[in-house]
Amino acid sequence: MRYKELMSAIPDISQKILSSTLKRLEEDHLLTRKMYAEIPPKVEYTLTEMGKELIPSVQLMINWAQTHFEEITK
Predict the structure, then answer these.
(1) How many other β-carbons are positioned within 10 Å of the β-carbon of residue 31?
(2) Is 11 helix (H, G, I), strand (E, B) or coil?
(3) Distance CA 20, CA 22 (A)
(4) Mean per-residue pLDDT for 5-31?
(5) pLDDT beyond 90 at 46
(6) Which secondary-structure segment (H or E) carries 24?
(7) What are the residues facing 35 on neighbouring strands?
(8) In which element (H, E) is residue 36 found?
(9) d(Cα 55, Cα 16) in Å, to the nearest integer?
(10) Residues contacting residue 34 through CB under 8 Å, at least 6 positions apart
């Protein structure tokens, strides 16, 4: 996804937080960043194989949170 797409997909996130999170995920080898020499500059982010391995675990956490939403938000 492109940076702008990520900003639109994640409600209420600041540019600073998104940028720092993407940088950390790249440092942790969970995503790759590809820059294109264009004007305006174009940057795309893609999950690495290691990042893709986390999807089932993250999905389990999402399912748990949805199941227990009422208890969590009291």
Answers:
(1) 20
(2) coil
(3) 5
(4) 96
(5) yes
(6) helix 15-27
(7) 43
(8) strand 31-36
(9) 25
(10) 43, 44, 45, 46
Tell me what the mean pLDDT of segment 32-42 comes to: 91
For CA atoms 21, 27, 33, 39, the dihedral sign is positive
Q: How many domains does the structure of the chain reveal?
A: 1
Q: Structural domain of residue 26, as residue ranges?
A: 3-72
Residue 10: its pLDDT value, please? 94
Q: What SS3 class is residue 27? A: helix
Cα dihedral 64, 66, 71, 74 in deg (nearest 10): 140
Q: Can you tell me the mean pLDDT for 10-32? A: 96
Q: pLDDT per residue over 10-20, tens digit each?
A: 999 999 999 99
46: domain CATH number is 1.10.10.10
